[in-house]
Design goal:
With 394 residues, this protein is α/β, with parallel strands linked by helices. It folds into two domains: 125 residues, Aspartate Aminotransferase, domain 1; 232 residues, Aspartate Aminotransferase, domain 2 (3-Layer(aba) Sandwich). 46% of the residues lie in helices and 15% in strands. It has 15 helices and 13 strands. The chain has a seven-stranded mixed β-sheet, with helices on both faces. Strands 1-12 form a two-stranded parallel ribbon. Helix 2 packs across helix 11, helix 4 packs across helix 10 and helix 7 packs parallel to helix 9.
Length: 394
């Protein structure tokens, strides 16, 4: 049977990682993998997570099933964290899923059932997995304008014009904050205009929230999704705890549906549960329980919020240091947009040829579209990076 198939293309992130690991140069720099690294190049376990895990270990009495919808305490705690009081709780339904990707998958399946002939619109560019996931779910993905490679800013007028032309049969996939891969984010005023457009056209909002707290703060980063929750009759949200709790391998996420009323929310809940049962039966619990413990313990939550702030401030510091190093060496503001961006990533606007030359000449590895993980920059190699970027673009 298998000889009838061809090898599937490798995911470009993992393909790049394999190339990086095979490179024997000692001065190589990995800017491709999207994980936070501290000043020592490690992806640490948060102190609040260690304490929560110890508490779980000391108090756990069983490893029995938790149910199709997952850890309810976890889902409820995340609902409070992201929505606050922006929407009536009776309109919210949720299931736990394996990370943000699992959450997106569950929600895409529900969309396919509700709108078998509908279109889904994603930003140009978007997270590398969005387009193929939409295709695999049987949906027709389309791009709306988003990023200007020349200015490093959002093409908001073009984006809004596209959204204004949509209909009730369209779904719009939006990044809640810290836009992956570009790092260019919507302002609060722009979120207001997006909300007005969606309300006017009836297009359905679907928010991917994977980096809450990594932009300007937990409250500030939630503005856009809360604006949608408070103004739209229905919406979906996929939440990931991978980044802001440092739980990459634990796969803790939540899929949310907001219905126009409790009956609609209950229907959505039953559909999500049906998808879960037919997909992976039940989600893993350990990461979810860690988050539940942290968010429901006043001291642990305060400690976690401090750790998120520390990550956020370090990434901002690295942005400034890289942009300053380029400006000092080139006497140019060409890369100042790096400071204006927020979150873990920035899109540098380089050509594929330039990206390949950086890999070949300077052992600097980034994705083909020139997305770099700011959080992965070794501070001691910023000067090396600045020199290489100036050389390749002049």
């Amino acid at each position: 049977m298998f000889e009838k198939l061809q090898k599937a293309p490798l995911d470009k992130i993992f393909k790049l990682l394999a190339e990086y690991r095979a490179d024997e140069r000692t001065d190589k720099i990995d800017l491709g993998i999207g994980v936070y690294k501290d000043k020592n190049g490690n992806t640490p376990i948060m102190s609040s997570v260690r304490k929560a895990e110890k508490q779980i270990f000391d108090e756990a009495t069983t490893k029995t099933y938790i149910g199709v919808s997952g850890n309810r305490g976890f889902c409820d705690a995340i609902a409070d964290l992201v929505f606050d009081n922006s929407v009536d709780g009776s309109r919210i339904s949720s299931v736990q899923a394996p990370g943000g990707t699992g959450s997106i998958w569950v929600l895409l399946q529900v969309i396919k059932r509700a709108r078998p002939n509908g279109k889904i619109w994603i930003s140009d560019p978007s997270w590398p997995n969005h387009y193929p996931m939409c295709q695999l779910a049987g949906l027709e993905p389309n791009y709306y304008p988003y990023f200007d490679h020349e200015t490093g800013k959002v093409k908001f007028d073009e984006m809004l014009a596209c959204l204004d032309g949509l209909s009730e049969e369209d779904t719009v996939l939006l990044h809640g904050c810290c836009h992956n891969p570009t790092g260019a984010n919507l302002t609060n005023d722009q979120w207001d205009k997006v909300a007005q457009s969606l309300k006017r056209t009836g297009a359905f909002p679907f928010v991917d929230l994977a980096y809450l707290g990594f932009g300007e703060g937990l409250e500030q980063d939630a503005y856009g999704l809360r604006k949608l929750a408070s103004t739209q009759p229905e919406m979906m949200l996929a939440f990931s705890a991978s980044k802001n709790f440092g739980l990459y391998r634990e796969r803790a996420g939540v899929a949310f549906c907001i219905g126009k009323d409790q009956l609609a929310a209950d229907i959505a809940f039953s559909q999500m549960g049906n998808v879960v049962r037919a997909s992976y039966s039940q989600p893993p619990d350990h990461g979810a329980e860690i988050v539940r413990v942290i968010l429901n313990d006043k001291d642990l939550r305060k400690e976690w919020e401090g750790e998120v702030k520390e990550v956020r401030e370090r990434v901002k510091y690295l942005r400034k240091k890289l942009a300053n190093a380029i400006r000092e060496r080139s006497n140019s503001s060409d890369f100042d947009f790096i400071v204006e961006h927020s979150g873990m990533f920035s899109l540098l606007g380089l050509t594929l040829e330039q990206v390949n030359e950086l890999k070949k000449q300077s052992a600097i590895y980034m994705l083909d579209d020139s997305r770099i993980s700011i959080a992965g920059i070794p501070e001691e190699k910023i000067a090396q990076m600045a020199d290489a970027l100036i050389k390749i673009t002049r």
